[in-house]
Amino acid sequence: MKIFRHLSFGILSAIVLAAGSTPLSAQTTFKFDFGGGKGVPGAIPISPTNFYSAETGYGFEPGANVAMEDQSIISTNPFYFSVKLPKGNYKVWVLLGDKAGESTTTVKAELRRLMLEKIRTTPEKSEDRWFVVNLRTPKISDSNAVHLKPREKTSEIWDWDEKLTLEFNGTRPCLAGLRIEKADVPTIFLLGNSTVCDQPAEPWNSWGQMLPRFFKPEIAVANHAESGETIRSSLGAQRFEKVFSLMKPGDYLFVQFGHNDMKDKATNALETYKANLKKVVARTRELGGTPVLVTSMERKGGVEQDTLAGYPDAVREVAKEENCALVDLHAMSRIFYKALGADIGKAFQDGTHHNNYGSYELAKCVVEGIKQAKLPLAKFIADDFGNFDPAHPDSVASFEMPVSPMVSKEKPLGN
């Protein structure tokens, strides 16, 4: 017990010592003590009754059923904590665990982006971790903004509001300390459709929202994909323009479209698709970024027979013609699905969209594709990733992912 107390207060005190008494609105670093502020200078003390309000700019989201035990906030259910922040990349530090019992905590951000997976603590030892979260708003300039869909203004608003929202989930999730600071790090931008975007509710999920878990806290993942999109509609809705307005030299742009694009019946649809890909590749390079083209994963019915027409081949052709990095998720997904055999349905929620297990494995395919493409980005891959062979995926039976509170029967747009 003494070991835990020393670690908890020693680490947290060091983290918060320089905070002083600067008003929250003027700070660039934010520190919170979930042990009631017992002797920890500079941190804002948080109690179970501190719910979010516009006046304070921080607090638990409605529905949080939490209690203070020892020097931490604990719960038997998942809970959310939010902090009002402007757009940008943020490094987030969490201190997890307490000396009253064991805990296993999974942390997700915004719309269920996986940040930390199953961090275990004991009464004798707490754990602290860093991760990076990207925050955004629709605004591009005083006269331009992303054209949001109605669902992005309601069920998906957490991806667009001026708040950082963290979900703490797992077996007895236990939070002792939190630090948030602006981060000057490279960004991986994602653009695509419902198989890439941050799905707001269980049981739907995408590889894009699983991806942050597989990177070190030295790079951000900014997922600008959206359900129902084609490359042409994303250009028209200013989604690409939003990304380009933020892009810096050293950033990356991953682009995966095809499921909805293939429904275009125009005689020149495939040629227009390729031309748009080339336009995006050129613009990314003009800004000093690195474009990465991703072939679309197959549908559940595409194990033996391709369901995506000529679109994966079109992406491969553009990558070759433009000397652009390629992640062949289409090929890897078919290997993955074949390996599942009779269990293929356990990776899907419908014929196109995936559940937590399916998207987790596809995210691993993408990370393995980054390694195979020998992108400099590979240096940021998490140390515990190792290698991934889609022919030998993780066991379906042993896969565990804490279910987030938001559940919906509403299907993502597109198929």
H/E element order? HEEEEEEEEEEEEEEEHEHHEHEHEHH
What top-tier CATH class of the largest domain fits best?
Answer: Alpha Beta
Give unreliable regions as ranges: 1-23
Count of the separate structural domains? 2
Gross morphology: globular
**CATH topology of the largest domain, which one?**
Rossmann fold
Rg from C-alpha positions? 22 Å
Helix content: 10-25%
Named CATH architecture of the largest domain: 3-Layer(aba) Sandwich
The fraction of residues in strands falls at 15-25%
The quaternary organization reads as: single chain
Question: Termini, distance in Å?
Answer: 53 Å
* Broad structural category: alpha/beta
Structural summary, described in words:
22% of the residues lie in helices and 25% in strands. It contains 8 helices and 19 strands. It has helices at residues 2-16, 207-210, 231-236, 239-246, 269-286, 311-321, 329-340, 356-372; strands at residues 29-33, 44-45, 58-60, 67-69, 72-74, 79-84, 88-96, 103-109, 113-121, 127-135, 139-141, 144-145, 163-171, 174-182, 187-192, 220-223, 252-256, 290-294, 325-327. The protein is globular, with a radius of gyration of 22 Å.
